Structure formats: C-alpha cells, structure tokens
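Researcher: Please generate the 3D structure of the following complex. Treat every line as part of one assembly.
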Amino acid sequence: MTPADQLTTGRPRPEVALTVQNLRVGFGAPSAEDAVRGVSFEVRAGECLAIVGESGSGKSVTARSILGLAGAGARVRADELTLAGESVLGLTEPAWRRRRGRDVGLVLQDALASLDPLRPIHREIGDSLRLHTRLDATERSRRVLEVLDAVGLPDPHLYAGRRSGELSGGQRQRALIAAALVLDPPLLVADEPTTALDVTVQAQVLTLLQRVRSEGTAIVLISHDLAVVSRIADRIVVMHDGRIVETGTTAEVLGNGRHSETRRMLAAVPVDKPRGARLAPATETRPAGPALVADRPAVPADPRNRATPAVPLVAPAAPPATPGAGLALEAVGLSKTFRGPHGTIHQAVDNVSFRLQRGSTLGIVGESGSGKTTTARLALALTAADAGEVRLLNEPWSTLPERDRRARRPLMGAVYQDVLASFDPRLNVREILQQAVTGPASAGRARGRRSSAARRGEAARVGSLLDEVGLASGLLERRPADLSGGQRQRVGIARALASRPQVLICDEPVSALDVSVQAQVLDLLDELQRELSLSLLFISHDLGVIQHVSDEVAVMHDGRIVETGTAAEVFTAPAHPYTRALLAAVPRLI
Amino acid sequence: MADQLTRARLGGLGRRLAGAVFVLWAVATVTFFAVRMIPGDPAEAILGGPGSQTSPEALAAVRAEYGLDQPLLLQYLHQLGRLATGDLGQSYALNMDVGPLVVSQLGGTLVLALLSLTVAWLIALLLATWSTGRGRLARQIGSGLEIVAAALPHFWLATTLIVVFSIWWGVLPPISTADARGLVLPVVTLAIPLAGFLGQVMRESLTAALESPFVLSARARGESERGVLWRHALRHAALPAIGLSGWAFGSLISGAVVVETIFARPGLGRTLLNAVTVRDVPVVIGVVMIVALVYILMTVLTDLASRLADPRPTTSGTGAGA
Amino acid sequence: MPRPGILRSAPRSATLAVLAGTAVIGLALTGCTSAAPTGDTATAVEGGTLTYASGDAEPTCLDPHVGGNYPQALVSGQFLESLVSLDSDGTVIPWLADSWTVSDDGLTWEFTLKDGVTFTDGTALDAAAVQANIAHLQDPATGSSTGYLALAKVTGTEAVSDSVVRLTLAQPDSALLESLSQPWLAIESPTALERSQDENCAAPVGTGPFIVDSWVKQNAITLVRNDDYTSPPADAAHDGPAYLDSIVWRFIPDSASRYAALQAGEVDVIDNAQPDTITQAEASDTIVHLDAPRPGASNRIELNSGKAPFNDAAVREAFIRSANVDDAVASLFQGSAARSYSALSSVEPLGISRPDLFDYDPDAAAALLDEAGWSEKDSDGYRVKDGVRLTVVFPVSTNQSIPAEQSLFEQIQATAKETGFDVQLTKLDLSSWYTALGSNAYDAVSAPYTKVGPDVLRILFDSAGITPAPSGYFANHAQLSDPELDSLLAQASATNDADTRADLYADAQDIVLEGFYILPLYDQQNHFLLSSAVEGARAMPTVSTPAFYDAWLTS
Amino acid sequence: MSELEIQVAAGVDTAGGAKTAGRGRVTAVEVIAGLLAALLIIAAIAPRLLAPGDPLAIDPRAAFGAPSWTHWFGTDESGRDIYTRVVDGAHDSLLIGLTATVIGLGLGAILGVIAGTLGAAVDFTVNRFLEVLFAFPGLLLALLFILVFGPGPGSAIVAVGLSTAPGYARIIRAQLIRVRSSAFVEAATVQGLSRRRILTRHILPNTLAPLLVLGTLGVGQAIVWAAALSYLGLGAQPPAAEWGAMLSAGRTYITSAWWMSFFPGLFIVLTAVCATALGRSIERRMRHA
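Model: Done. Output below.
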C-alpha cells in the first residue's frame, strides 16, 4: 500500500456519526412481518461497527435504511435515525439526496457490478462532486485523482480513465471505496465489501478500511463472516431474524458470545478447527426424523441440544481411515491450455501432479484463476489434458476412451459448487436419485422393462441415500429449484454417492452456502467419508475450509502446484512465499 | 500481445468481409435458382405472360437477348459475373436497367426506414422511461402497450391511420407529398409496431439496469432518479435495442412493402411487390440483392454501434445476421 | 388490389381494331358540375398544376407504339396526338390531318397534314414524319402489338408532298380512320424516334399540349405545358396553348388512398374510382364524377358450352335464372353502373338488349334443372346427377375484375347455391388465369374486351375463336360453335349496307343471348372523379382516355 | 434476430419481473388472455355456437350496414354479417397461423438440432445457411417463395413457415448449445451415461421444452404475417372468411365502411396479443414448475 495522502479532508466530524433507535422496516402488505424489527445501535466517529448475520437476518435492509434506500415498497419507521447529528426521519427524497454521498457513503459487495461498467471510474467518482459541490471540472478531476491515489490505486492518471471491467478485483474495489470517500463523509456503510474477493485482495481492502476508520470516519460494516469483521470491527452486532440478538465489543462477542446464534456462527467457522471437529450441532448434520427437513430448524430451546463448538468427534490427531492402502487418484504432469477469444493462449494448468491416498482428503487451494477448477475437470476426465495422465485406483483413467471409461465412471462421484445447475431442471429429487442409482447399467437393459423387484430395490436405495445425507423422504417429489441451498447440496451429495463411488471430487462444494449451512455440509462430508471410506479431492478457494477438511494440501497458483504437504505442514510451516502470503491474509477469529 | 490482438482483430475483419461476400453470393445463387423454378417460360414472362400472343420469332429473339438459350450453368455464371461488376440486368417489365432502378428506389426506402427507426426509438424510450419505476400498474400498462403495438399489422394500422387522419379529420395526406407531411403517416405506421418490439427489450433491460448494484451506488451518491435514468440506466437499456437495429431494418423493409404500396410512396418495397406480382425476375433479384447488401451493412454498423456504446471487451456482439 | 394495367390491357388493346364509323362513345356526366367542354372559355384561368392519380399500373414505356396498352394511352394522350379523332357522335374529325381522301378501290389513302405544326423538339410535322411513325410501328424491333395489328393491311407509305402522305393498303380497310384515331398510333417526332428505345420510352416527343418533363419511376411523371401548341383536335373548346402550367401524373395503386388523396385535395383527378367512392362523390359538392364507359363488349359471364354441365342449354338457362344479378349490381355499384342485358357495350348503337331473357327466377331455374336430370340434391344442398355434383368452376382474374365485380361473383355464387349450383370461385393472378382458360379448366369466366364496333362479336363468338393461338390464348370463352352464327358474322363484316349489317348483327346477338351462352352484367366501367376545381376536362370520344387540354383550375 | 427472438428475450425478463406476482397466482392478464383464447378456439371449432348465422349468406339490401344491434360489426358489401364472418374466420386464420408455425417450428427444430448435435462441420454449414436466410429479412423470403410457387393460401402458409424457420432454428440451436454445455449434462457424463442417452434423456427434452412457448408466441406473429400476405393479395382470397382476406376486401371500401376492415384487423391484433400473453404465461409457469 502506498503511503498516500490523507484519505480524509479534515472535515470536522460529529461526535456521533449515526444513531439508530428502534428501527423497523417492512415490505409488502402492512400485515406482513417486518424484515427488521426494532434495531438500535450507535456509531461514533472513528469507530467501526460490524453487523453480522446470515442471509435473511435483516442486516442489509438495516444498512440500506441508513441511506434511505430500503426500496420503493419499504415502510421504514424508527424512534430515532440521526445521521451526522441531524435527524433523517421522514426526509423527502430530495432532502435525502442532498445527504447521500455527503453525509454517508456506501460501498457494495461486487465492485464490477457496483460501478457502472460503461463509464470510466473517474466519472463515477466525480459524480458525487458534481452533485454536491460547485467544483469545476478541473478541480473535480484533481480531487478524483487525489482520492484514487489515497486509496492506493497505482498510477491514478492511467486508471482513472478505465472502466470497472478493465480493472482487477482489488483495483475496482478501491475505486468503489474512493467513490464513497470522495466527499469525505463522516460515515461509511460497507455492505459485504470483501465477499467475492480473493483472500489476499480481501486483506488489502480490510487494511484500507482500517485506515479510513483510523482517520476518523465511522464505518458500518455488514458481513456474514465473523472472521472478516474480527479484523477491523470495534464492536459487533449480531442480527438474526430482523433483531439484534447480541451486541458487544469484538473481543466480547468472539470470545464470550452468549446467544446461541452467535455461538453457532462461531462454531461454524472452519478455520483453525481441527480435522474431524464438528462445525454444526449433530442434529443439524443429519436431522433424525421427517420433521427436520429444513436447513435450520428453529433454534432448539433445550440446552442439551446447544451447539458445542470445536469439540472433536474423534481425536483430532487420529489419522484418516486406512491411509496408505493405495492410491485412489493420481495425476502426473497434467497440462492444459485454452485458446482465448483473440487467438491468445492461456495456460490453465501447467504440469500438475498430485496423489490422493485412499480414504483420505486432498485439498487443492488457490485463488480465482489458479487453475483448480480445470484440474477438477481433468480429474473427472471431462476435458482431455494436453499432457499428463490421471490414474484411478492404480488403473488408467484419463487415457481411456470415453466408451471404456463409462463403465468405471461409477467409481468416481462429483459434488459441484452450483449444484442447482447440475440438476436437470425437469427432474424432481426422486428422478434425479433414481437415475443416479440406475446409472449407466440400465442403458444395456431393455428400456422400461426392469423387474418390479429391481424397481423396489431402487426405491429402497433412493430412500437410504436420503437417509445418508440427512434429508426427509418428504422432499422426494420436490424439484431442486424449490429446495434451500443446503438441501440442494445434500441432494447433490446423495447423487454422487448413488453409484457407491470410491473417489469424490468436490469442486467448491460449500462456497455458495451460508456459514452455518456450510458447517453442516462439511460435517456431513466428513461423516460420509468415514462411513464409506471415501477418498476426497476437495477444491476450494477458502483456506479455512481446506485446512479443516484436508489430510494433505496442494496450493495452486497460476496453473502450477507451488506447494504440497500434509495439512499440518502446509498450514504451520509454509515453504513457498505464495503460501505464506495466502496464510497471512486469511481472516481468523481474533 | 498487442500485436497478437491487432492481428486477431484484422483477422476478424477479414472473416467478416469474407462472410459478407459469401452471404451475398449465396443470396444471388439461391435467388437465381429459385426463380428458375418458376413454372413457365421466362421469355414469355418477358413478353408479358402467356396471354400476350407472342410469336415464336419474338420468343427466340428474347431468348437470345437475355441469354436464355444458353445452358443453365452458363447463365448462372454469367449472372454472377454481371453481379460482380454491379450489373443487375434488365427488368422484364420496366424496360430499364435494374441497377439504376433499384438505386433510385433505395433512397426513399432508406429515408422512410431510418426516420421510422428514429421515431420508434423515441417512442420506445419514452414509453420505457415513463413506465419504469412507477410501480406495477405503470409497468403493466407499458408492457401491455408494447405487446399490442408489436402485434399491430402494418396494413391495418396504415388503413386505420388513413381513415382517422386523412378521411375523418383531413389533417394529414394519405399519400407521399413533396413536403414532409406525407411522411408522417407512413413513418408512424412503421414506427409503432417496431417501437413495441424495441420497447419490450428496452424496458426489460432498463428494469434490470435499475435494479443493478451500480444504480444503487449512484443513488447512494445522491443521484436523482432522473440522473440515474439518463446517466446510467438508459445507456444500458439502449444496448440490446442497438443490437436489434439490424433486425429492425429488415423488419422495416418488410413493412415498406406494405406501407409504400398503401401510401403510394416510391421505394424498394413497392418495387418489389410490383415485380413479384408481374414476376419481373431481374427486379426481384436486384431488390433482394440490394436489401441483403444493405442488411449486411446494417448489421456491421449495428455491431460497431454496439461496440461504441459498450466498449467492454467481453461484448458478445448481437448475433444479428451473423 | 388495384388492377395492374400492364397485364390487363395487353390482350384487350391488342385487338382494338376499329370498324368503320360505327362507334359512338358516350360521355355521361353526373354530379352537379359539368366537366365537359362548355365553351365557357372566357372564364378559363391560366396556370396551375393539376395532379392526376392513376390506379392503373405505371407504364413501362411512355411511347404507346411500344406494346400499346391502356395505361400508356391514358398518359400519352396528354403529349402525343393522332392524325384524326372522333367527335362525341362518333364521327371522324380532323386532328393532325386536316383532310383525307380514299381511292375508289379503298386501297390508297392520302392525308393532308395541318400546316405549321412542329414537334416539341422543333422537328416539323411533315409527310416524312408520318412515314417514319408508320415504319416505327411496323418495325418488329419496336415491339408494337396494338399499332402493329391496326396497320396490318398497310403495305406502303409515300410522301406525295411535304404535307401530303399516301398510304397503300393490301385490302380495303374501312376501319383505318378509327385505327388511326387511337392513341396507340399517335404521331411522334421522327428525330426523337431515332434515339434508343430506352430514351424514347422515357420521354417521347410529340405535338401535344404538354411535354414530358421528367419521369421518376414508381412515383410520378411531370408534364409541362407546350407553349407553342397549335394543333388541337377539331372538337376542342379553345385554340392555342393549354391553360394548365403542368400536370403531375402519379400512380396510386390503392383505391382507398387514391380517393382519400382526392378528398384531402392532394390530387385533382383520379381514375378507376370504386363504386362506393362514386356514391360518396355524388353526395359531395367538391368532387365531380365523370363516367366514360369503354366501347366493345359488355362485362359479362361467359358459360363454357364446350363441356358439361354447360353443354346443356337448359343448365345454362337455369344458371342464368338462378343468379340474382340485379340486386347485386344495385347494392355493389350503388347506381354507378346500370344492368346490361346485351352482349355489347351500351355505347354501341347496334347492340340489342333482351331484359326478358335474364330475369332472376329461381323457381324456373329449379324446374329447368329437374327436367335436365339434375333433380337430386346432396347433403350440402347441391344438385347431383349420376353421382356428379353440379359444379361450376369459375376462375376470376384479380387483375381484370375490380373488387366490386369480385363481390358480384360472390353474390351470384350465393344465389346460385340456393338453386343447387356449386359455384367454385378461384381468384387467380393473370398468368394462372390464362393457364386455367388455356387448359379448358373452367365452366364460367368473365373477360372484358374492348373494341370499337359490333365486330367484337366475331372475335368473341366465331367458332374459329375456340382454337387457341400457339400461346394458348383464345377469345371464344363460351366455346360457342354454331355455323349459322359464323356465317351471320362473316356476312355482317363484309356488307357495306348499314341496315343489312344492323339486321345481321341483331340476328347474331339473338343467337348468343337466346342460347344463354353469356350472362350480361353491365358496361365496362371507366369512372373518373375530379375535384370541382377542375373545369373543362373531358374523356376523349375515342377510347375514353382523359384530356386536359381544355382543362383549368378555378382558384 | 427475429420477432420471435425478441419476444422470447423480452419474455424471459418479463417472467423474471413477474416474480412479484408469485408462481401460481393467476394474473388478470392471464384470465383475459385465457378467456379470449377459449373463445377463439370455440370459434375455430364450433363457430355456430358463437354466431349462429351463415357467414356466406348474402343480403344485398343490407349491404354496407354500419355496426348496429342486429349486426354488431356491421355488414359488408354483399350484406354478409361481419361478426359472423369474423367468428367464422377464426378457423382459417388460426389454422393458417398454426400450420405455418408448425412448419416453421418443425424446420427450425430440425435445423437447430442438426446444427447442435452433428458436430462442428454441420454446425458451421447450418449456421452459414441460416445467415443466408437471415439476409432475406422479414417478408422477403416469403415473397420470393410466392414468386416461385405462385400465390394462394397454401403458398402463404409455407412461405410464412419458411421465413420464420431461421428464427426458430437459431433459438433452438442456442438453447441446445446452452443445454449441451450445462452443468447437468456434465453431471450426467460424470455418472457414466452414454452420449446417446444424455442426448435423448437430457439434451433434447430440455432443448425442446420451450417449443410450446415458442409456438404460442409464434402463432401470433404467423397470423399477422399470413394476414399481410393475404392483404397483399398473395394469400387467402375473399370471400374466404380469413381475417387478412376480409381486411383486404374491406380496404376497398375503407372510405365509406371502415368497419369492414377494422374488425377483422382488430381480431388479428387481439389474437396476436393473446398468443403473446399466453406464451409468456406458459413460459413463466414452466420456469417455476
């Protein structure tokens, strides 16, 4: 980070940047339950308040209500809503407009979409100046360059003329922050500002926000990720179902969270949790009985059911089942290039070799564009490698013609990130699983003439698959589109297990999930691995997840594997500088 | 890298050109052989149909004059050769070269089409901006108007407009005039259905743009609704509609067939319909060729316009005609 | 659809040979203002532009020598002139020729040309010019059909002097003068004729009151006044140049647009007026109706007597009696067309009318059919005989029948159905229509035929007309083959005695009408609507084309 | 692009925008469109139920009657009741629209599937072919077809079918390619399903699922196009009670009897609007089903 100018202009700060008292926000019919139900908090100058909660907790609606942007159909009521010392309750739209940008700035999650992709960033940033000041064009552009320089964008003169699509993820997030800071508002609302970013970039952005705060700007940081907010938040507010369930300093909340929701969230963070440790209450991983079909049943009041975070089910040091019993999957010298749109050549995977021991988990970690998904596809033999070979259970795999490989395909299952897309939209859960159970075998048989016994057998197998992944049989007739994210991923896992595979390729299987659902799925995979002696190739960008699930780890960067080793080796004594940089950037709880 | 890109772009341009030439050649070939499938003797058609009591000598003379006595393949090659040099042949019915005829009719149609395109754009923009962000009722009214407009057949609209504006109220001429008044009804006739199509696309992308995060960002800066609309959303809304302009031109040519006939305007559409009615093959080929040429040109222009409006490198083009 | 005249007019005009001195072109005027030459030239106003909107197809060549069809005649009459003309009684009167003589054997004609006439390109009108025109018409390269046929008997020309030209004929031709009166035999500048055909087609040069100024294809022809004009026909209302500065000759194929344009004042004259607009015009005081029926045959339905079922006269009569034409004509033409009971146009003095034969009488029709063996009816209500339905295949040319006429056929179809006829109307474009006729795939058909004089009967009903020409075309659609009729018609065309001729034609018509070979409908319609601001416009007594030499615009 | 592709593209977003309306809820537009469609179908199958008169019954004395209580839509030049004829015309018009759509959709589906399944060379060829067809915009292809095969209702149907086929083909090919490269097809490969089985079980059903929507949207456009050809005198002919032909016949009398062309035209528009609304509604429901 360049030690640039002050981010702020030294504009005088009100003592209290924001006061919210009993905020209620409702949508739709007046009778409908409010999305935000009586939220109160206060943010002082130079303070960072984090609002944490899972999707649907009401945190984003709260954030937007602070800017009067809850939406056209929203009913916003509060006992008090004071921004920079002035009440903004019942403001007219023009009056709101005069305050937005000047008194409060907003930073959104996806900078690619949050900056107009058709306009150069200097225009986007200059808009605030145009709207709120009387600066002329030269003065405006001077200030824009100033603030771009301050947020650490290299060579502002060059980059100011570019559009968001022409910037890297980190650059455009800086530009977005610059746009919010250009008028030096006393309050910055940041709604998941680092969520889609690679871990190293995320660290840089958090550092930038820290600087902003240290110069006296108040920050309201919205996030689902406790680990992220723990780095910069002074105080944390935990929201659940539209209410604040816990509030306190960062240390208090993280160290001594009292509310079950807080504890759940803390327990679910995989980073630094030993291999085999449960992340979610056992009842949630495989809810017993048909009543538990939802991802998150109502938080049980019974204290016996309370989550017990970080308590390993088995001794953390216990080795995975039967290691060294042979190789499940082996890749030797895999390479793959792709041709770009203008004849450019992109080396996606470059001489990648790895070995997956039977019954163990190999985690492949890397940032976006590192080649991990291509590696997964090569392992699945969905793409032909330019060079190198993949062997399955010590027998040829990638070199077989597809026709011959088909018979061996049942040995390998796959779990996908976008699991919904991996289901034929025309099929319901029963049909999906049935097809998976029948597998390629039925192709040889006379169509539709399977014996009734065989059909009964299939139905039984489908039922037992559902049990294995903890889904109620009531979901059989539903379509995946009607299920929740966690349920879908469970169906995905059930399908992968249907052919009784020995190897499971998991490509970012939990990236799209809320942290507590992620915890359930990770627990489930862990249990299944144990029960079925599965070998897992687990691919993720999330070091925390990888650390938690892997026996061995391979770190990918620019198409190459830069470091391999046991999880313990790689995470405690990283050898490669890139691994070290990655690890340093990982947000941890405190 | 930069070199590679330049070369790739040049290659793209070359492919594009080759593609255009290919399409023109194919259009010429398809048309040539299609019209040879017409039952009856082309020489008779030239002399005015089977009722015209032509003598065998006259037929022979005509066959020789138009090269119809040569083998079909030779005729085809001759035709290609002539087309390559811009010679579109002689009209059977109009007693003049097709090239100058078609070129002389092109202007009127282009003026009509371009004006209609502009007016359609304006109507679509107005309707889209009016009906977006005003709640469900306005959106449904806007969407309903667009669907109805898109379903309006040109011939019915033209007739209805003539009845109301020319016959009942007598405010606008029902035929082309030396001044611009005669353009009003034809342009409106062509523009309204087109606006229905453009508006549907425009309003949907406008809605999508207004719901996108960058608009939220702009609002969070204190941008007014009008500012949001004009500085951000409209440009995004216009993109798909710009991409449609190539198609729009084609649909306007179809419309021109009807509109030019009803409003007695000179132009390609009327020429084409006349030629089809009297089976004046060279004129049909000529009009088809020139329309294909202009259409290809329009799709290239459309692509360029799309790229200007959306300089993002990932733009996938419009696919119109390509 | 308006009727594209290119196609329609070719066969009609191609046979428009005029018989000696019998044509009387009626000029009926309706409406509140007279559009005929009134001699009221004192009040004529000079200047102004008249806009004419034609519903006929745009000519492909403005030189009526080339081809020779009605749309060409319509416009070329404004800038080209003929040697002679007809007055409103049908008498031949001088035009470019002051006088003429014919030898006793009828084989030599001498025409003395008007003095001091020059073509608008400065070329003088002299005997050589007439010779050049006749040569041009007879040159196969010109591609003349109408003029070529009209001059079929002319074998030689000779310039007796500068102003006297002599024509030599192979056989006597009492129709020569009428032929020469037609616009398709107009005299053009020999200098201009030497240009390429394309150039000449774009702007023929004549002696007329207007000059072709420009022709924007598919849009308009602009004509400007010939300020040196000296050669009006003998029946013109004034001398010297025309009153109008210019005429814009537009092509508006759509009849509703055409009328709307007239109503809106965008144009001053329209042709091919539809019946409903005529009715509206007559109710209006700003639009004047000019009715100028064409000579020749009446519009009629011909019944194919060459094959079943119409080879049975009783079935033909039954069909005619089952068709309610009167009500249909009244409703569709709203008084703009009178019912005809004749084979000939009402302007033909030798035509005879037999209203008694064409009553609508479904009972009589039913009785006739019962007698003829078509006594049973099938489930659809159509008559059958020996398992065959009583079907009348009726191809309709959309180019030759205006919409009202097509509706008339539909009404005939509907009324004939009540008696048990299954009339199958098929609307065809001209080429398919000819094909249907040529392959004898019709039982009834309606084909207009324009030809001055009762000799049209010989073309339509002589048994020789059944045999198709090599191109497939034939005129005797009724396929009437009656030696007695053939002989009557031959005698009529040979005789010089007017009374005998009239009797012979009357007998011939009786055979046609009493044999129920045709169902007459009305005269060939030819209606113009004029803005009431237009004064002095008229239809030429030759082939009813409009003439604007005497016309002027009231301000 | 084609009209259809626009309708489809717009429809997708409309369906997205309609999410506020809820999945299963029937909107007012759907009710109206459904009722109208039902009436049109009744008219097409059993016209006498809606209009007991004879559409061909003439009554010269009642010709050119303005709309009145006895003749809701007025009478035409032969005194025929226009309401009866419009009802009666539903059969021909819908049949023409449907047949043309089936032809277009069938051809389009064949071309699209061939292009999407038979390899790159075939895809390339079909694509070039479609490009060439697209260079005959709109009515041009139909006019050319009619030039060759002569005018008439049959020609008009095939001509409209032919000129809409490229649009369908492109939509179907794009859909097929989207499906082919979709994650669930990949998942099926991973399961070890054979190419043929993936094609018949997953790719084709998902590619052809939108045919119903395409067809419904397309019928409206096909009716308008066929009517345009009839109007130009190149399709169905009067006195056939086909709407385009009726409109064409009525246009002659437009200055004195506007109702003769107004009502048939109105029903062309209503049918097309109805088809669009229904197509969108089916689309939305299929998406959420």
